[in-house]
Amino acid sequence: MKDLTPNQMKALCMLAANYDRHEVAQACDITTRTLDKWRRLENFQELLRKAVVATYDAAISELVLGCQESAKELRKIILDPDTPSRTKVSAISVLLTNAAKAKEHLLEDRLERIEASLNGDITEQDTEA
Q1: DSSP character at residue 108
Q2: For 111, how many CA atoms within 13 A lie in the half-sphere containing its CB?
Q3: Where are the alpha helices (DSSP H) in 17-84?
Q4: Per the confidence metrics, is the pTM higher than 0.70?
Q5: Cβ neighbours of residue 111 closer than 8 Å, sequence gap 6 or more
Q6: How far apart are CA 47 and CA 8, in angstroms?
Q7: pLDDT one-digit tens code per residue, 23-50
Q8: Torsional sign, CA 13, 14, 15, 18
Q9: Which of 43, 75, 76, 111 makes a 20 to 30 Å CA pair with 66?
Q10: Rounded Cα distance, 124 and 118, in Å
Q11: Contacts of 94 (CB under 8 A, 6+ apart)
């Protein structure tokens, strides 16, 4: 990746994973001062920013997948004839509460786009997205 040493790559990965700078320096067998110098390099900063974004995107993907799997499991609990009624009611409550929150978020986004359109901030085409 753009002329980084293996040790710099190791530091970059650890920093992107939110390790403390002292832990990174120790793992890379460098001083924190050297690490700070690396962090001031434009190339290192750019790659670190991209690595942090990629790490964040991967985490969000895992959360979305987990939500989908959780909803499927709740649905199985609700539909299982052997599940006690009390458990079904709890599962239904969790499912409906989270569905309502998701719908509320979508409605808030639409409302913000409509308000922006009315204020002339975006075109009408953007509100249809």
Answers
A1: H
A2: 6
A3: 21-27, 32-40, 42-79
A4: no
A5: none
A6: 11
A7: 999 999 999 999 999 999 999 999 999 9
A8: positive
A9: 111
A10: 9
A11: 74
